[in-house]
Amino acid sequence: MKIYKKILTLLSFTILFTTICFGQESLTGGIERLFSKIERDILTSAEAMPEEKFNFTPESLNIKNSSLKGVRTFAGQIMHLATDNILIWSAITGDAVRADIQDVNGPKNITSKKDVIEYLKSSFAIGRKAIATVTTKNAMDMIEHGWRKLPRLDLAFYALTHANEHYGQMAVYLRLCGIVPPPTVNEK
Protein backbone atom coordinates (compact mmCIF):
# COMPACT_ATOMS: atom_id res chain seq x y z
CA MET A 1 0.00 0.00 0.00
CA LYS A 2 2.91 2.37 0.72
CA ILE A 3 4.34 1.99 -2.78
CA TYR A 4 0.85 2.60 -4.20
CA LYS A 5 0.61 5.88 -2.25
CA LYS A 6 4.06 6.92 -3.43
CA ILE A 7 3.17 6.23 -7.05
CA LEU A 8 -0.09 8.19 -6.76
CA THR A 9 1.71 11.11 -5.10
CA LEU A 10 4.45 11.09 -7.74
CA LEU A 11 1.85 10.96 -10.53
CA SER A 12 -0.12 13.78 -8.91
CA PHE A 13 2.93 16.00 -8.55
CA THR A 14 4.08 15.25 -12.09
CA ILE A 15 0.74 16.25 -13.59
CA LEU A 16 0.47 19.30 -11.35
CA PHE A 17 4.03 20.39 -12.18
CA THR A 18 3.52 19.89 -15.91
CA THR A 19 0.24 21.81 -15.85
CA ILE A 20 1.68 24.73 -13.90
CA CYS A 21 4.97 24.95 -15.81
CA PHE A 22 3.74 24.42 -19.31
CA GLY A 23 0.16 25.63 -18.95
CA GLN A 24 -0.82 23.82 -22.11
CA GLU A 25 -4.10 22.58 -20.72
CA SER A 26 -6.11 22.69 -17.58
CA LEU A 27 -5.63 20.16 -14.84
CA THR A 28 -9.34 19.43 -14.99
CA GLY A 29 -9.15 18.67 -18.73
CA GLY A 30 -6.48 16.03 -18.23
CA ILE A 31 -8.43 14.31 -15.47
CA GLU A 32 -11.69 14.52 -17.45
CA ARG A 33 -10.18 12.77 -20.48
CA LEU A 34 -9.05 9.80 -18.42
CA PHE A 35 -12.33 9.79 -16.48
CA SER A 36 -14.37 9.76 -19.71
CA LYS A 37 -12.48 6.74 -21.06
CA ILE A 38 -12.87 4.78 -17.83
CA GLU A 39 -16.56 5.74 -17.56
CA ARG A 40 -17.24 4.65 -21.16
CA ASP A 41 -15.38 1.34 -20.68
CA ILE A 42 -17.25 0.53 -17.48
CA LEU A 43 -20.72 1.57 -18.68
CA THR A 44 -20.49 -0.31 -21.98
CA SER A 45 -19.23 -3.38 -20.14
CA ALA A 46 -22.00 -3.20 -17.53
CA GLU A 47 -24.61 -2.87 -20.26
CA ALA A 48 -23.11 -5.81 -22.22
CA MET A 49 -23.76 -8.36 -19.48
CA PRO A 50 -27.20 -9.92 -20.01
CA GLU A 51 -29.71 -9.57 -17.17
CA GLU A 52 -29.74 -13.35 -16.58
CA LYS A 53 -25.96 -13.32 -15.99
CA PHE A 54 -25.80 -10.08 -14.02
CA ASN A 55 -25.31 -12.01 -10.77
CA PHE A 56 -22.64 -14.29 -12.24
CA THR A 57 -19.66 -15.07 -10.04
CA PRO A 58 -16.66 -17.14 -11.14
CA GLU A 59 -17.06 -19.12 -7.92
CA SER A 60 -19.89 -20.96 -9.71
CA LEU A 61 -17.40 -22.38 -12.22
CA ASN A 62 -15.80 -24.56 -9.53
CA ILE A 63 -12.34 -24.19 -11.05
CA LYS A 64 -9.95 -26.70 -9.44
CA ASN A 65 -7.32 -25.11 -7.15
CA SER A 66 -8.88 -21.64 -7.51
CA SER A 67 -9.56 -19.28 -4.63
CA LEU A 68 -12.80 -17.73 -5.83
CA LYS A 69 -14.91 -18.45 -2.76
CA GLY A 70 -16.87 -15.37 -1.75
CA VAL A 71 -15.85 -13.12 -4.67
CA ARG A 72 -18.37 -10.51 -5.72
CA THR A 73 -20.90 -11.11 -8.45
CA PHE A 74 -20.72 -9.02 -11.62
CA ALA A 75 -23.48 -6.79 -10.19
CA GLY A 76 -21.62 -6.72 -6.88
CA GLN A 77 -18.49 -5.45 -8.66
CA ILE A 78 -20.52 -2.60 -10.13
CA MET A 79 -22.26 -1.78 -6.85
CA HIS A 80 -18.94 -1.67 -5.00
CA LEU A 81 -17.32 0.45 -7.70
CA ALA A 82 -20.24 2.89 -7.79
CA THR A 83 -20.33 3.14 -4.00
CA ASP A 84 -16.61 3.84 -3.76
CA ASN A 85 -17.01 6.40 -6.56
CA ILE A 86 -19.68 8.13 -4.49
CA LEU A 87 -17.60 8.02 -1.30
CA ILE A 88 -14.40 9.26 -2.93
CA TRP A 89 -15.85 11.90 -5.24
CA SER A 90 -18.15 13.22 -2.47
CA ALA A 91 -15.10 13.67 -0.25
CA ILE A 92 -13.70 15.97 -2.94
CA THR A 93 -16.92 17.99 -3.37
CA GLY A 94 -17.74 18.02 0.34
CA ASP A 95 -21.26 16.79 -0.42
CA ALA A 96 -23.05 14.35 1.88
CA VAL A 97 -23.41 10.78 0.63
CA ARG A 98 -26.68 8.96 0.19
CA ALA A 99 -28.25 7.90 3.49
CA ASP A 100 -28.83 4.34 2.20
CA ILE A 101 -25.09 3.64 1.82
CA GLN A 102 -24.15 1.54 4.82
CA ASP A 103 -20.96 -0.08 3.52
CA VAL A 104 -18.73 -0.26 0.43
CA ASN A 105 -21.14 -2.61 -1.33
CA GLY A 106 -23.89 -0.02 -1.70
CA PRO A 107 -27.59 0.07 -0.93
CA LYS A 108 -29.09 -3.39 -0.48
CA ASN A 109 -32.35 -2.44 -2.22
CA ILE A 110 -30.65 -1.91 -5.61
CA THR A 111 -30.74 -5.28 -7.31
CA SER A 112 -32.03 -5.13 -10.90
CA LYS A 113 -29.66 -4.56 -13.80
CA LYS A 114 -31.47 -1.34 -14.68
CA ASP A 115 -31.20 0.04 -11.14
CA VAL A 116 -27.57 -1.03 -10.72
CA ILE A 117 -26.62 0.76 -13.95
CA GLU A 118 -28.55 3.89 -12.91
CA TYR A 119 -26.70 3.84 -9.57
CA LEU A 120 -23.41 3.50 -11.47
CA LYS A 121 -24.30 6.43 -13.75
CA SER A 122 -25.17 8.57 -10.72
CA SER A 123 -21.74 7.83 -9.25
CA PHE A 124 -20.07 9.04 -12.44
CA ALA A 125 -22.16 12.24 -12.33
CA ILE A 126 -20.74 12.94 -8.87
CA GLY A 127 -17.28 12.27 -10.31
CA ARG A 128 -17.77 14.85 -13.06
CA LYS A 129 -18.90 17.39 -10.47
CA ALA A 130 -15.84 16.65 -8.31
CA ILE A 131 -13.37 16.85 -11.20
CA ALA A 132 -14.71 20.28 -12.12
CA THR A 133 -13.62 21.52 -8.68
CA VAL A 134 -9.97 20.45 -9.02
CA THR A 135 -7.65 23.32 -9.91
CA THR A 136 -3.91 23.90 -9.80
CA LYS A 137 -4.49 26.08 -6.73
CA ASN A 138 -6.39 23.46 -4.68
CA ALA A 139 -4.98 20.20 -6.09
CA MET A 140 -2.73 19.62 -3.11
CA ASP A 141 -5.25 20.68 -0.45
CA MET A 142 -5.67 17.89 2.08
CA ILE A 143 -9.10 16.21 2.06
CA GLU A 144 -10.54 13.87 4.70
CA HIS A 145 -11.37 10.45 3.29
CA GLY A 146 -12.12 7.58 5.57
CA TRP A 147 -9.46 7.37 8.21
CA ARG A 148 -6.87 9.60 6.52
CA LYS A 149 -6.17 12.86 4.73
CA LEU A 150 -4.99 12.93 1.13
CA PRO A 151 -4.40 15.70 -1.40
CA ARG A 152 -7.46 16.38 -3.56
CA LEU A 153 -5.55 15.30 -6.69
CA ASP A 154 -4.49 12.01 -5.06
CA LEU A 155 -8.12 11.28 -4.26
CA ALA A 156 -9.12 11.95 -7.86
CA PHE A 157 -6.43 9.58 -9.14
CA TYR A 158 -7.33 7.00 -6.52
CA ALA A 159 -10.94 7.06 -7.79
CA LEU A 160 -9.76 6.63 -11.38
CA THR A 161 -7.34 3.84 -10.50
CA HIS A 162 -9.91 2.00 -8.40
CA ALA A 163 -12.52 2.26 -11.17
CA ASN A 164 -10.07 0.96 -13.75
CA GLU A 165 -9.15 -1.99 -11.51
CA HIS A 166 -12.82 -2.96 -11.34
CA TYR A 167 -13.18 -2.53 -15.11
CA GLY A 168 -10.45 -5.17 -15.44
CA GLN A 169 -12.40 -7.54 -13.20
CA MET A 170 -15.59 -6.85 -15.14
CA ALA A 171 -13.77 -7.65 -18.40
CA VAL A 172 -12.69 -11.03 -17.00
CA TYR A 173 -16.24 -11.80 -15.81
CA LEU A 174 -17.61 -10.92 -19.27
CA ARG A 175 -15.10 -13.20 -20.97
CA LEU A 176 -15.93 -16.04 -18.55
CA CYS A 177 -19.53 -15.63 -19.75
CA GLY A 178 -18.47 -15.75 -23.42
CA ILE A 179 -18.80 -12.00 -24.01
CA VAL A 180 -16.03 -9.88 -25.52
CA PRO A 181 -15.85 -6.60 -23.56
CA PRO A 182 -17.17 -3.76 -25.77
CA PRO A 183 -14.06 -1.57 -25.30
CA THR A 184 -11.97 -4.41 -26.76
CA VAL A 185 -14.29 -4.69 -29.76
CA ASN A 186 -14.30 -0.91 -30.24
CA GLU A 187 -10.49 -0.66 -30.20
CA LYS A 188 -10.04 -3.10 -33.11
Overall radius of gyration? 17 Å
Classified by CATH, the class is Mainly Alpha
Which homologous superfamily in CATH is the superfamily?
dinb family like domain
Count of all domains: 1
Strands ordered across the widest β-sheet: 1-2
In percent, how much strand structure appears in the residues? under 5%
**pLDDT averaged over residues:** 85
Determine the CATH topology: Four Helix Bundle (Hemerythrin (Met), subunit A)
* Main sheet summary: 2 strands, antiparallel
The SS-based structural class is mainly alpha
Q: Count every beta strand, where a strand is a DSSP E run of 2 or more residues.
A: 2
Anisotropy-based shape:
globular
Measured between the Cα atoms of the first and last residue, the distance is: 35 Å
Question: What is the CATH architecture term?
Answer: Up-down Bundle
Question: Helix share of residues?
Answer: 55-70%
| Low-pLDDT stretches | none
Number of helices: 6
Order of helices and strands: HHHHEEHH
Describe the structure.
With 188 residues, the protein is mainly alpha-helical. The chain has one domain (2-187): Up-down Bundle (Four Helix Bundle (Hemerythrin (Met), subunit A)), CATH 1.20.120. 60% of the residues lie in helices and 4% in strands. It has six helices and two strands, in the order ααααββαα. The protein has helices at residues 2-22, 27-48, 74-93, 113-131, 152-176, 182-187; strands spanning 142-145, 148-151. β1 (142-145) and β2 (148-151) form a beta hairpin. The protein is globular, with a radius of gyration of 17 Å. The mean pLDDT is 85.
